[in-house]
Specification:
repeat; PT; binds NADP nicotinamide-adenine-dinucleotide phosphate; 2 domains; alpha/beta; about 425 residues; oxidoreductase activity; 3-stranded parallel β-sheet; signal; SDR_fam
Length: about 425
């Protein structure tokens, strides 16, 4: 069970603006200690100051997610400062808008490096700490990780990759029985500075296609996921339209988005592009949560609260599989079942005597019977003569068969002293026989 939010240490990668910033503030408002990371130092500093002013606890750590070593240092800094990590949120991303022929190889490379490899670096850095004490990984993909749209090929490809990455991770962790949960968030359009930060090759500034929501709606779902692990949470009603539409009729979606008005005009503004973006380096500034979307912005998503956060039936099965693996691997379960069966069978079966054992038993019995009752004082001298002849060749397999047949008759006459000297050689025999079987 995840800790209550107020007791958590949360790392948010991509915290300087937009959804990440709103998430850091939402966690801090509920009492979590937050580690805020991104490249823009001033924006991070103002965020930490604002959180502290409001009575919270925040640690700003400037980090570029494209640099794996820097992300590992971030994880170390979080653990050194707060002692552990409970929830790790990967939200950093950049965008390049344009037709595929107009976007360079370097731009594709950069978007994948930040939007996809950034998540890989985050998971690699966080997992050792999360594996130790349990915790939650939350990755922000997008409704575009389910359904691609025109003019955002690198971004959509990175979001598909992120979604697949977390699917693989979720299964691997369940196989290990590790108490680490993985939630993928699929937001629809949010009013954040993302569209001002994006690189546009369209000649105009870009905008989110409607309907557009406030970034706090996503932040609330991320905080929710930190204590209520879910496989995926679509945020915003349009995200579910993407999910269902893509599953039922992807070709119809292709056709609709091929219409210029819907597929292109919905994403560009009338304002000329300002030539500024955060693809290679952070934007200057103190950081903001909200963007400047001129149209209608929805404050809530009833759909997300009522439907999007619901646990799917299959999720219960994944949890059951993880619990099963935590107790015993399937291999161990099988081996244990076979061992159980064998033990029960062994208990039912009496040890079977080999023909040679019967013969040896008979000889021993005859020899003992033919011997006159011996006073206890003489026995030490008698026994050595019996034992060497029997023991070396017979000991492992003969003894159990010897015991029942030999003991009843000679022992009453021999009792006081032979018992201690005969017993030790007879006792260990049942085990070798069980082993032979
Ligand atoms: N806005 C939407 O409509 C929408 C919809 C669906 C999904 N999303 C997803 O939501 C997440 C947050 O987006 P947003 O809308 O809040 O955008 P945003 O305001 O532009 O925030 C992006 C954050 O990522 C950080 N970042 C970018 N490159 C980085 C790098 N190399 N290393 C470290 N941090 C880096 C930025 O900080 P620095 O530049 O200071 O480093 C910033 O804090 C993204 O994953 C995005 O894909 C957004």
């Amino acid at each position: 069970m995840p800790r209550p939010v107020a007791e958590q240490v949360v790392v948010i990668v991509g915290a300087s603006t937009g959804i990440g910033r709103a998430t850091a503030m939402a966690f801090a408002a509920k009492g979590a200690r937050v580690v805020c990371a991104s490249r823009g130092t001033l924006a991070l500093e103002t965020l930490a100051q604002q959180i502290r002013r409001d009575g919270g606890d925040a640690l700003p750590v400037p980090t570029d997610v494209a640099d794996a070593a820097a992300v590992r240092s971030l994880a170390l800094a979080a653990q050194q400062h707060y002692g552990r990590i409970d929830t790790w949120v990967n939200t950093a991303a950049v965008g390049v808008w344009g037709r595929i022929e107009d976007i360079t190889d370097e731009e594709f490379d950069r978007v994948m490096r930040v939007n996809f490899l950034g998540h890989v670096h985050g998971v690699h850095a966080a997992l050792p700490a999360l594996r130790r004490a349990g915790g939650t990984l939350i990755g922000i993909s997008s409704a575009e990780g389910v359904r691609a749209v025109p003019l955002q090929a690198p971004y959509a490809a990175s979001k598909f990759a992120v979604r697949a990455f977390y699917d693989s991770l979720r299964m691997e962790l369940a196989q290990d029985g590790v108490p680490v949960t993985v939630t993928t968030i699929l937001p629809a359009s949010m009013d954040t500075p993302f569209f001002e930060h994006a690189r546009s090759k369209l000649g105009t500034m870009v905008k989110p296609p409607p309907p557009v929501y406030r970034p706090e709606v996503v932040a609330a779902s991320i905080v929710y996921a930190s204590t209520h692990p879910r496989r995926e949470i679509p945020v915003g009603g349009s995200a579910v339209v993407f999910l269902i539409g893509q599953r039922l009729c992807p070709a119809l979606f292709d056709a609709l988005l091929s219409v210029r008005h819907l597929g292109v005009r919905g994403q560009r503004t009338d304002r000329p592009d300002d030539g500024l973006d955060n693809v290679d380096r952070p934007m200057d500034g103190t950081g903001r949560v909200r963007g400047r979307h001129p149209g209608w912005v929805l404050r809530h998503s009833a759909f997300t609260r009522l439907v999007g956060r619901r646990r799917r039936p299959g999720e219960l099965l994944t949890a059951a599989v993880r619990d099963l693996h935590r107790r015993r691997s399937p291999g161990e379960t099988l081996t244990a079942a076979i061992r159980d069966l064998r033990q029960r069978r062994d208990l039912r079966r009496r040890p079977r005597r080999r023909p040679g054992e019967l013969l040896t038993g008979a000889i021993l019995s005859l020899r003992r019977r033919s011997r006159p009752s011996t006073p206890s004082s003489v026995l030490p001298s008698v026994l050595p003569s019996v034992q060497p002849s029997v023991q070396p060749s017979v000991q492992p397999s003969v003894q159990p068969s010897v015991q029942p047949s030999v003991q009843p008759s000679p022992q009453p006459s021999v009792q006081p002293s032979p018992q201690p000297s005969v017993q030790p050689s007879a006792q260990p025999s049942p085990e070798p026989i069980a082993g032979v079987r």
